[in-house]
Amino acid sequence: MAKRKKFFIYMNAPLTMSFVLICLTALALDFLTAGKSTVLVFSTYGSSWLSPMTYVRLIFHVFGHGGVQHLISNMLYILLLGPILEEKYHDKLITVVLTTAVVTGIIHNILQPHVMLLGASGVVFAFILLASITGKEKGIPITLILVALLWLGQEIYNGILSADNVSQITHIIGGVSGAALGLIFKNR
Questions:
Q1: How confident is the model at residue 69 (pLDDT cuts 50, 70, 90)?
Q2: Contact 174, 104 (CB under 8 A)
Q3: Which of 111, 147, 174, 186 is 20 to 30 A (C-alpha) from 133?
Q4: Residue 137: pLDDT band with limits 50, 70, 90
Q5: Where are the alpha helices (H) located in the chain, listed in sequence order?
Q6: pTM value?
Q7: Which of 30, 31, 51 is nearest to 39 (CA)?
Q8: Does CATH number 3.30.420.10 belong to domain 14-186?
Q9: In a 10 Å sphere around its CB, with 0-12 CB exposed, 13-18 middle and 19+ buried, how is residue 165 labelled?
Q10: pLDDT of amino acid 50
């Protein structure tokens, strides 16, 4: 008699799932505090470099979102790409998330200090370009070049021609962070 295989659910991507849960918690806190937690912790903007909260916000702004739709659109990409990247890069993926958060936050605060930045789109674009690097050969894969050209062209086009509340510079910096770190990881 053949043994029946057990069906079970398992945790395949703890960093990815932790990221998503923190984002969900940040959005819940946003609703519970009428936006005060998002302004205080889960967004970044020009503030005194002497304030410890400035540095907290440089990392935590990637967890804040401007609403359910904003959260869902970012989390779909994170949940799609995160497990694949986590399998490939293991503990290095946290470096990608933290570096992207800090670099996008600093550049945003310098270029647009009076505008609040929040959301995981910088991390999403870092993941997109990092995923396009994945492969066994050293060097720069053609998929990275094509994805970067198409994506960069779209972001420049959107930045010039659309008047939305989307920070294309954050997308670009996030993508560059992911690509640069991916090439560093790959060529070591």
A1: very high
A2: yes
A3: 111
A4: confident
A5: 14-32, 36-40, 52-60, 68-89, 93-111, 121-133, 142-161, 168-186
A6: 0.86
A7: 30
A8: no
A9: exposed
A10: 96
State both tokens at 172: 């670009």
The residue written with tokens 């916000």 in the block is 57
Output the six-digit token pair for 150. 């198409």
Encode burial over 18-39: b for 16+ CB neighbours within 10 A, e otherwise. Answer: ebbebbeebbebbeeeeeebbb
Q: How far apart are CA 90 and CA 148, in angstroms?
A: 24
Residue type at 179 in one-letter notation: A
- Provide the greatest CA pair distance for the chain: 71
- Provide the token pair at 148: 């970067």
Give 79-131 pLDDT, tens digit per residue: 999 999 999 998 899 999 999 999 999 999 998 899 999 999 999 989 988 98
Q: For the segment 123-135, what is each residue's pLDDT rounded down to a tens digit? A: 998 998 898 887 7
Structural tokens at position 35:
């936006």
